User: Fold this.
Amino acid sequence: MIVRRDDPVLVQGITGKQASFWTEKMLACGTRIVAGSSPGRAGAQVHGVPVFDSAADAAKAHRIAWSVLFTPALATKAAVYDALEAGIRNLVVLAEHLPVHDVMAFVAEANERGARIVGPNTAGVVTPGEAALGIMPGFAENIFAPGRVGVVSRSGSLGTLMCLEIVRAGYGQSAFVGVGGDPVVGTSTAEALAAFERDPGTDAVAVVGEVGGTMEEDAADYAAGMTKPVVAFIAGRTAPPGRRMGHAGAIVSGSRGSGESKVRCLRDAGVRVLDSPSDLGPVLQSLLR
Amino acid sequence: MNVPEHYAKEILREGGIATPRGRVARTADDASAVARELGGRVAIKAQVPAGKRGKSGGIAFAASPHEAREKAAALLGTSIAGYVVEAVLVEEAVEIARELYAAILNDGASRSPLVLFADEGGIEIEELHARAPDSVRTATVDIRRGLDPERAARLARHPGVADVLLRMYERFATLDCELLEINPLAIDRKGDLVALDCKLALDDSARPRHETLFAEVERLVGPQGTELERRARAAGLYYIELGGNVGVLANGAGLTMTTIDAIAHAGGAPANFLEIGGEAYTKATAALELVLANPRVESVLVNFCGAFARTDVMAEGVVAGYEALRPRVPFFFSIHGTGEERANAIVRARLGARPHAVMEDAVRAAVAAAAAIRA
Assistant:
């Protein structure tokens, strides 16, 4: 789930206003975007990228390693199937407000085909100095710099802040993986940790979690057996139970998914849990000395 | 969206699952009339979206229409777990031989629907699981294929119950549910299966596929939340009133939660949760109006960290709102990410404000300013 500079990329829904804006940004980050798709728009070009009617058509003309989907929520399931049937193995699904039943269906389909979905409701994946997929400011030098800290985040906005703290402390990122803020996502925080544990370019990992669900608790189980140090920040620790805090996944019901449970599990697993985002720099300095 | 019990039971009946006969009453007289229609002993159940309703005194029984009037009068207008009882469901009382538990929910860990079944019911599943973990049997379902009748049979160990599980799954899948729980699923003295209580939560993201259903549920439950929360919803913004005096305007759920935590961490109290991430980043002016419409607000913290949400667009929105409203409370800014140079320049030039380089510094300043006004 770490994107590399040579990976050929498809942008589905490329002719939309936001997709076009972010295609230019992704290209500026070095991303090798070889094709776009948009139904009925074959033959068009977006920032020099050739547009096809479908992922299937794009995959006939180009080898494609990743697809990043800028599709509207209710059109996303069909677009994911289009990409999977075209043989694309890595998908970044940006849309939010996807019906959860759609997500469960296309994640099951991807698993069966040996493909990986990152998202939905993710801000994307970034490998500073190499490539960026999605809607993260990979082009901003005060936020992203090549380095050796892996970042996994449920949130784009808070993930951006944590990346800023990393660069401010004099470090950089080996990669950023946005896992997404929905209750069901294709790639979990624990799976992202596993990718960073294997990645020779990563020395430490920062986990940006939030209340709701049990991804952080599961990640703590995995982190307990890791050789690399892990730090974590959990958003929403003061959130009132029963109220959804913006992300569909960020809701505390009963003790399940509470900030307290996550912090306890992570600390028990030997993870340094930060009380404040600006503690990240000093903690990295102590861990990576 | 949570569906009230009486309407959830209608949805079960449409799917061929039996429920006790009965209907909703909004007055004590009507409750008495329903009891007369039904004849015999009735249950009177407060229609509030609270768990452990029985323990909170939200369920009463009556042997006659006269008693039904008295019991309904005692419930209506009272408050259970913070919800005012505006309606009661009057149902025939079922002679229970046995209580079971059945539920289907979206499970993030397995990324699939999860069916839960227990041979004991009538208590909260967490309680049951803690007391007798082996009594709760589970099965994940491949949503592309649906619940297989053989799986249902193995789970239920009873043909009638397996049939109810299959019918529940059909409702769950057809209506894009987050949760469908029948607890208890009763076996009555005649051996028939009856859904005595039902919790049904719909997936708000699937609303475009079920517009009529959502509209009907909204009509039944009436307007939810505080006046400001309702105004926000109408404007397409997500706002939660929190009772403190530091107004919050931030983008993205994660950053906004962090802002709220940071205010509490600094000894302050946030007035609201309000995030303008995603497509809402162009609505900063309307969002600022909402923050300032809360009379408790003594300082405003604007915290942007733009990825998709362009901070320059949000800053322009804030400045436009500020210039239109001329608020008297002090503002504090922390702005980073996409468009930050322009955003900070706009705030400096048009508002004469100096954005803080470190988010926590902006938080502490906003908390201190709100406290100073209080003092």
In short: Chain B touches chain A through 53 residues (CB under 8 Å). The radius of gyration of chain B is 26 Å. The first strand of chain B starts at residue 2 and ends at 3. Chain B has 13 helices and 18 strands.
